[in-house]
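Field log, afternoon session.

UNIT: design team B
ACTIVITY: writing a sequence onto a fixed backbone
BACKBONE:
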Protein backbone atom coordinates (compact mmCIF):
# COMPACT_ATOMS: atom_id res chain seq x y z
CA UNK A 1 0.00 0.00 0.00
CA UNK A 2 1.22 3.47 -0.81
CA UNK A 3 1.24 5.77 2.18
CA UNK A 4 0.39 9.41 1.97
CA UNK A 5 3.74 11.10 2.12
CA UNK A 6 3.22 14.16 -0.01
CA UNK A 7 6.26 15.87 -1.40
CA UNK A 8 6.47 19.30 -2.96
CA UNK A 9 9.28 19.51 -5.47
CA UNK A 10 9.89 22.26 -8.03
CA UNK A 11 6.38 23.62 -7.70
CA UNK A 12 4.63 20.26 -8.09
CA UNK A 13 2.85 18.38 -5.32
CA UNK A 14 3.24 14.61 -5.38
CA UNK A 15 0.61 13.09 -3.04
CA UNK A 16 2.54 9.80 -2.76
CA UNK A 17 6.00 11.29 -3.10
CA UNK A 18 8.24 10.75 -6.10
CA UNK A 19 9.77 7.40 -5.21
CA UNK A 20 6.86 5.34 -3.90
CA UNK A 21 5.50 3.19 -6.70
CA UNK A 22 3.19 0.17 -6.89
CA UNK A 23 4.62 -3.32 -7.35
CA UNK A 24 3.96 -4.24 -10.98
CA UNK A 25 1.38 -6.95 -10.24
CA UNK A 26 -0.30 -5.08 -7.37
CA UNK A 27 -1.97 -1.94 -8.62
CA UNK A 28 -2.69 0.91 -6.21
CA UNK A 29 -5.92 2.85 -6.09
CA UNK A 30 -5.54 6.53 -6.97
CA UNK A 31 -9.25 7.52 -7.21
CA UNK A 32 -12.67 5.90 -7.09
CA UNK A 33 -12.50 3.02 -9.61
CA UNK A 34 -9.09 4.06 -10.95
CA UNK A 35 -5.94 2.03 -10.30
CA UNK A 36 -2.27 2.57 -11.01
CA UNK A 37 -0.12 -0.30 -12.31
CA UNK A 38 3.54 0.13 -13.07
CA UNK A 39 5.19 -2.11 -15.67
CA UNK A 40 8.98 -2.42 -15.82
CA UNK A 41 10.80 -1.75 -19.11
CA UNK A 42 14.38 -2.79 -19.99
CA UNK A 43 15.68 0.64 -21.04
CA UNK A 44 16.82 3.91 -19.52
CA UNK A 45 13.15 4.92 -19.16
CA UNK A 46 12.62 1.86 -17.02
CA UNK A 47 8.85 1.78 -16.50
CA UNK A 48 5.45 2.85 -17.79
CA UNK A 49 2.32 3.64 -15.76
CA UNK A 50 -0.82 1.88 -16.88
CA UNK A 51 -4.23 3.02 -15.65
CA UNK A 52 -6.91 0.43 -14.92
CA UNK A 53 -10.55 1.57 -14.73
CA UNK A 54 -13.19 -0.80 -13.44
CA UNK A 55 -16.84 -0.98 -14.44
CA UNK A 56 -19.58 -3.57 -14.14
CA UNK A 57 -18.71 -5.31 -17.41
CA UNK A 58 -15.00 -5.49 -16.73
CA UNK A 59 -12.02 -3.25 -17.31
CA UNK A 60 -10.84 -0.35 -19.40
CA UNK A 61 -7.06 -0.04 -19.55
CA UNK A 62 -5.09 2.99 -20.69
CA UNK A 63 -1.81 2.08 -22.44
CA UNK A 64 -0.29 -1.37 -22.57
CA UNK A 65 3.58 -1.54 -22.40
CA UNK A 66 6.03 -2.99 -24.95
CA UNK A 67 5.41 -6.39 -26.50
CA UNK A 68 8.03 -8.28 -24.51
CA UNK A 69 7.75 -11.60 -22.67
CA UNK A 70 8.23 -9.71 -19.35
CA UNK A 71 5.29 -7.38 -20.02
CA UNK A 72 3.04 -10.24 -21.10
CA UNK A 73 3.95 -12.01 -17.86
CA UNK A 74 2.86 -8.97 -15.83
CA UNK A 75 -0.45 -8.87 -17.70
CA UNK A 76 -0.93 -12.62 -17.13
CA UNK A 77 -0.48 -12.20 -13.40
CA UNK A 78 -2.93 -9.27 -13.42
CA UNK A 79 -5.57 -11.24 -15.36
CA UNK A 80 -5.84 -13.99 -12.81
CA UNK A 81 -5.01 -11.82 -9.82
CA UNK A 82 -6.00 -8.20 -9.51
CA UNK A 83 -8.37 -8.11 -12.52
CA UNK A 84 -10.33 -11.04 -11.03
CA UNK A 85 -10.65 -12.74 -14.43
CA UNK A 86 -13.00 -9.99 -15.56
CA UNK A 87 -12.50 -9.09 -19.25
CA UNK A 88 -10.62 -6.07 -20.56
CA UNK A 89 -13.32 -4.93 -22.94
CA UNK A 90 -11.73 -1.60 -23.86
CA UNK A 91 -8.11 -0.71 -24.50
CA UNK A 92 -7.37 3.00 -24.81
CA UNK A 93 -4.00 4.12 -26.20
CA UNK A 94 -2.90 7.68 -25.59
CA UNK A 95 -0.55 7.51 -28.58
CA UNK A 96 1.31 5.20 -30.94
CA UNK A 97 4.73 4.83 -29.32
CA UNK A 98 5.66 1.19 -28.68
CA UNK A 99 5.59 1.45 -24.87
CA UNK A 100 1.96 2.61 -25.15
CA UNK A 101 0.55 0.46 -28.00
CA UNK A 102 2.90 -2.54 -27.69
CA UNK A 103 0.33 -5.01 -26.38
CA UNK A 104 -2.91 -3.30 -27.46
CA UNK A 105 -3.54 -5.76 -30.30
CA UNK A 106 -2.73 -8.69 -28.03
CA UNK A 107 -5.19 -7.53 -25.35
CA UNK A 108 -7.91 -6.87 -27.96
CA UNK A 109 -7.40 -10.35 -29.47
CA UNK A 110 -7.39 -12.00 -26.11
CA UNK A 111 -10.65 -10.49 -24.80
CA UNK A 112 -12.33 -9.75 -28.11
CA UNK A 113 -12.38 -6.12 -26.96
CA UNK A 114 -12.04 -2.79 -28.72
CA UNK A 115 -9.11 -0.45 -29.27
CA UNK A 116 -9.96 3.22 -28.67
CA UNK A 117 -7.36 5.50 -30.22
CA UNK A 118 -7.21 8.68 -32.33
CA UNK A 119 -7.13 8.16 -36.07
CA UNK A 120 -3.73 9.73 -36.75
CA UNK A 121 -2.06 7.67 -34.03
CA UNK A 122 -3.63 4.51 -35.44
CA UNK A 123 -2.64 5.24 -39.04
CA UNK A 124 0.88 6.44 -38.19
CA UNK A 125 1.45 3.33 -36.10
CA UNK A 126 0.35 1.05 -38.94
CA UNK A 127 2.55 3.01 -41.38
CA UNK A 128 5.67 2.73 -39.21
CA UNK A 129 5.02 -0.92 -38.42
CA UNK A 130 4.92 -1.64 -42.18
CA UNK A 131 8.59 -0.52 -42.42
CA UNK A 132 9.69 -3.73 -40.72
CA UNK A 133 11.41 -5.94 -43.31
CA UNK A 134 12.08 -3.04 -45.70
CA UNK A 135 15.44 -1.41 -46.32
CA UNK A 136 16.02 2.14 -45.14
CA UNK A 137 14.79 4.38 -47.99
CA UNK A 138 17.23 6.68 -49.77
CA UNK A 139 15.22 9.77 -48.77
CA UNK A 140 15.73 8.94 -45.08
CA UNK A 141 19.49 8.50 -45.56
CA UNK A 142 19.61 11.85 -47.36
CA UNK A 143 17.75 13.39 -44.41
CA UNK A 144 20.33 12.17 -41.87
CA UNK A 145 23.24 13.02 -44.17
CA UNK A 146 21.87 16.58 -44.35
CA UNK A 147 21.76 16.65 -40.53
CA UNK A 148 25.48 15.79 -40.40
CA UNK A 149 25.59 12.01 -39.86
CA UNK A 150 28.84 10.31 -40.91
CA UNK A 151 28.92 6.96 -42.79
CA UNK A 152 29.13 4.95 -39.59
CA UNK A 153 26.05 6.65 -38.16
CA UNK A 154 24.20 6.06 -41.42
CA UNK A 155 25.08 2.36 -41.20
CA UNK A 156 23.66 2.23 -37.68
CA UNK A 157 20.48 3.87 -38.96
CA UNK A 158 20.26 1.28 -41.76
CA UNK A 159 20.64 -1.54 -39.24
CA UNK A 160 17.98 -0.18 -36.89
CA UNK A 161 15.48 0.67 -39.61
CA UNK A 162 12.21 -1.20 -39.15
CA UNK A 163 12.71 -1.85 -35.43
CA UNK A 164 9.48 -0.03 -34.54
CA UNK A 165 7.30 -2.91 -35.70
CA UNK A 166 9.33 -5.44 -33.71
CA UNK A 167 8.35 -3.86 -30.37
CA UNK A 168 4.62 -4.08 -30.96
CA UNK A 169 2.01 -6.76 -31.46
CA UNK A 170 0.09 -5.93 -34.68
CA UNK A 171 -2.69 -3.42 -34.12
CA UNK A 172 -6.27 -4.53 -34.74
CA UNK A 173 -7.83 -3.94 -38.17
CA UNK A 174 -10.58 -1.81 -36.75
CA UNK A 175 -10.82 0.80 -34.01
CA UNK A 176 -13.18 3.07 -32.10
CA UNK A 177 -11.83 6.49 -33.07
CA UNK A 178 -11.24 9.05 -30.30
CA UNK A 179 -11.90 12.66 -31.34
CA UNK A 180 -10.73 15.86 -29.68
CA UNK A 181 -13.44 17.40 -27.49
CA UNK A 182 -15.78 14.41 -27.36
CA UNK A 183 -16.84 12.88 -24.08
CA UNK A 184 -16.84 9.18 -23.44
CA UNK A 185 -18.38 7.35 -20.54
CA UNK A 186 -16.48 4.97 -18.31
CA UNK A 187 -18.26 3.44 -15.36
CA UNK A 188 -20.99 6.08 -15.45
CA UNK A 189 -18.57 9.00 -15.44
CA UNK A 190 -17.75 11.40 -18.24
CA UNK A 191 -14.22 11.72 -19.57
CA UNK A 192 -13.37 14.39 -22.08
CA UNK A 193 -10.86 13.67 -24.84
CA UNK A 194 -8.21 16.39 -25.07
CA UNK A 195 -5.79 16.07 -28.00
CA UNK A 196 -2.25 17.42 -28.05
CA UNK A 197 0.41 17.24 -30.74
CA UNK A 198 4.18 17.48 -31.12
CA UNK A 199 5.38 14.40 -29.23
CA UNK A 200 3.16 12.33 -31.50
CA UNK A 201 0.61 13.41 -34.11
CA UNK A 202 -2.74 13.20 -32.28
CA UNK A 203 -2.03 12.35 -28.65
CA UNK A 204 -5.07 11.72 -26.44
CA UNK A 205 -5.38 12.89 -22.82
CA UNK A 206 -8.48 12.03 -20.79
CA UNK A 207 -10.03 14.52 -18.39
CA UNK A 208 -12.65 13.50 -15.82
CA UNK A 209 -14.28 16.56 -14.18
CA UNK A 210 -16.12 14.48 -11.55
CA UNK A 211 -12.95 12.78 -10.32
CA UNK A 212 -10.75 15.81 -11.02
CA UNK A 213 -8.30 13.60 -12.90
CA UNK A 214 -6.24 13.99 -16.04
CA UNK A 215 -4.75 10.89 -17.63
CA UNK A 216 -2.01 12.75 -19.46
CA UNK A 217 0.00 10.06 -21.33
CA UNK A 218 3.30 11.60 -22.46
CA UNK A 219 1.70 14.99 -23.12
CA UNK A 220 2.44 16.17 -19.56
CA UNK A 221 5.16 14.43 -17.55
CA UNK A 222 6.33 15.83 -14.21
CA UNK A 223 10.10 15.66 -14.70
CA UNK A 224 11.01 14.33 -18.14
CA UNK A 225 10.55 16.63 -21.10
CA UNK A 226 8.85 14.52 -23.77
CA UNK A 227 10.82 14.10 -26.96
CA UNK A 228 9.70 16.40 -29.76
CA UNK A 229 11.40 15.35 -32.98
CA UNK A 230 11.49 15.85 -36.70
CA UNK A 231 11.68 12.56 -38.61
CA UNK A 232 12.50 11.72 -42.25
CA UNK A 233 8.79 11.12 -42.93
CA UNK A 234 8.24 14.91 -42.70
CA UNK A 235 11.58 16.78 -42.92
CA UNK A 236 10.01 20.26 -42.99
CA UNK A 237 7.61 19.61 -40.10
CA UNK A 238 7.42 21.99 -37.13
CA UNK A 239 6.33 19.71 -34.28
CA UNK A 240 7.75 22.07 -31.64
CA UNK A 241 5.31 24.78 -32.72
CA UNK A 242 2.51 22.23 -32.30
CA UNK A 243 3.86 21.13 -28.94
CA UNK A 244 4.07 24.68 -27.58
CA UNK A 245 0.54 25.39 -28.83
CA UNK A 246 -0.77 22.20 -27.25
CA UNK A 247 0.79 23.01 -23.87
CA UNK A 248 -0.73 26.50 -23.94
CA UNK A 249 -4.12 25.14 -24.98
CA UNK A 250 -4.22 22.53 -22.23
CA UNK A 251 -3.30 25.20 -19.69
CA UNK A 252 -6.12 27.38 -20.99
CA UNK A 253 -8.78 24.67 -21.19
CA UNK A 254 -8.09 22.57 -18.11
CA UNK A 255 -8.46 23.56 -14.46
CA UNK A 256 -5.35 23.63 -12.33
CA UNK A 257 -6.58 21.48 -9.44
CA UNK A 258 -6.47 18.12 -11.23
CA UNK A 259 -4.53 15.08 -10.13
CA UNK A 260 -2.37 14.38 -13.18
CA UNK A 261 -1.80 10.70 -13.97
CA UNK A 262 1.23 10.65 -16.30
CA UNK A 263 2.48 7.68 -18.33
CA UNK A 264 5.89 7.90 -16.65
CA UNK A 265 7.03 8.95 -13.16
CA UNK A 266 4.52 9.74 -10.37
CA UNK A 267 1.04 11.32 -10.14
CA UNK A 268 1.12 15.00 -9.22
CA UNK A 269 -0.80 18.23 -8.71
CA UNK A 270 0.38 21.41 -10.42
CA UNK A 271 -0.76 21.03 -14.03
CA UNK A 272 -0.49 24.71 -14.92
CA UNK A 273 2.92 25.11 -13.30
CA UNK A 274 4.21 22.11 -15.20
CA UNK A 275 2.83 23.25 -18.56
CA UNK A 276 4.40 26.67 -18.00
CA UNK A 277 7.74 25.03 -17.14
CA UNK A 278 7.58 22.97 -20.36
CA UNK A 279 6.87 26.02 -22.50
CA UNK A 280 9.56 28.13 -20.83
CA UNK A 281 12.20 25.39 -21.07
CA UNK A 282 11.69 25.09 -24.83
CA UNK A 283 11.72 28.87 -25.30
CA UNK A 284 14.99 29.00 -23.38
CA UNK A 285 16.41 26.23 -25.58
CA UNK A 286 15.36 28.14 -28.68
CA UNK A 287 17.16 31.27 -27.46
CA UNK A 288 20.30 29.29 -26.57
CA UNK A 289 20.24 27.61 -29.95
CA UNK A 290 19.91 30.98 -31.69
CA UNK A 291 22.98 32.25 -29.81
CA UNK A 292 24.86 29.05 -30.68
CA UNK A 293 24.30 29.73 -34.39
CA UNK A 294 26.50 32.82 -34.52
CA UNK A 295 28.63 30.79 -36.94
CA UNK A 296 27.23 28.22 -39.43
CA UNK A 297 26.51 24.83 -37.82
CA UNK A 298 24.96 21.49 -38.74
CA UNK A 299 22.11 19.89 -36.75
CA UNK A 300 24.60 17.49 -35.10
CA UNK A 301 26.67 20.47 -33.92
CA UNK A 302 23.68 21.80 -31.97
CA UNK A 303 23.60 19.20 -29.16
CA UNK A 304 25.61 21.37 -26.71
CA UNK A 305 23.03 24.18 -26.97
CA UNK A 306 20.17 21.79 -26.10
CA UNK A 307 21.49 18.98 -23.90
CA UNK A 308 23.52 19.12 -20.73
CA UNK A 309 24.73 15.55 -21.00
CA UNK A 310 26.99 14.13 -23.66
CA UNK A 311 25.07 12.44 -26.49
CA UNK A 312 26.31 8.89 -27.07
CA UNK A 313 25.74 6.83 -30.23
CA UNK A 314 22.54 5.25 -28.86
CA UNK A 315 20.90 8.63 -28.33
CA UNK A 316 21.97 10.23 -31.62
CA UNK A 317 18.65 9.57 -33.38
CA UNK A 318 16.47 11.23 -30.75
CA UNK A 319 18.95 14.06 -30.14
CA UNK A 320 19.15 14.83 -33.86
CA UNK A 321 15.37 14.74 -34.20
CA UNK A 322 15.06 17.10 -31.25
CA UNK A 323 17.76 19.46 -32.61
CA UNK A 324 15.94 19.56 -35.97
CA UNK A 325 12.64 20.31 -34.21
CA UNK A 326 14.21 23.37 -32.59
CA UNK A 327 15.94 24.38 -35.83
CA UNK A 328 12.74 24.07 -37.86
CA UNK A 329 10.92 26.13 -35.23
CA UNK A 330 13.53 28.90 -35.49
CA UNK A 331 13.31 28.70 -39.30
CA UNK A 332 9.52 29.05 -39.03
CA UNK A 333 10.01 32.14 -36.89
CA UNK A 334 12.46 33.47 -39.52
CA UNK A 335 15.21 33.86 -36.95
CA UNK A 336 17.76 31.65 -38.75
CA UNK A 337 18.63 30.57 -42.29
CA UNK A 338 19.54 27.19 -43.76
CA UNK A 339 21.82 26.40 -46.68
CA UNK A 340 22.70 23.04 -48.22
CA UNK A 341 26.34 22.57 -49.28
CA UNK A 342 27.69 20.49 -52.20
CA UNK A 343 27.85 17.38 -49.99
CA UNK A 344 24.14 17.58 -49.19
CA UNK A 345 24.74 18.85 -45.64
CA UNK A 346 22.56 21.61 -44.18
CA UNK A 347 24.18 24.55 -42.38
CA UNK A 348 22.20 26.83 -40.09
CA UNK A 349 23.06 30.44 -39.25
CA UNK A 350 21.35 33.12 -37.18
CA UNK A 351 19.88 36.15 -38.89
CA UNK A 352 20.73 39.42 -37.22
CA UNK A 353 18.14 40.57 -34.69
CA UNK A 354 16.17 43.38 -36.27
CA UNK A 355 13.16 45.33 -35.27
CA UNK A 356 11.63 44.94 -38.72
CA UNK A 357 9.95 41.94 -40.25
CA UNK A 358 11.71 40.53 -43.27
ZN1 LIG B 1 5.62 8.61 -26.23
Amino acid sequence: MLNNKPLIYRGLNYPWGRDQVPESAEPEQVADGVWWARFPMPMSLDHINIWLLEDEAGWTVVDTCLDLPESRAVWESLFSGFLKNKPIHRVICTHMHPDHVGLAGWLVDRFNGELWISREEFLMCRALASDTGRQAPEVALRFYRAAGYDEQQLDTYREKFGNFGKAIYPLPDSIRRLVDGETIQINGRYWQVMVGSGHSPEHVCLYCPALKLLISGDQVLPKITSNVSVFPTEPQGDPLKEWLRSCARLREKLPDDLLVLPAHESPFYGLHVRLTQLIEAHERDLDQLYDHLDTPKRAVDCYPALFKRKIDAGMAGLATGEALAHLNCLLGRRRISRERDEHGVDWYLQKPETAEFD
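LOG NOTE: The chain has one domain: 7-291.
NEXT ACTIVITY: expression trials, pending approval
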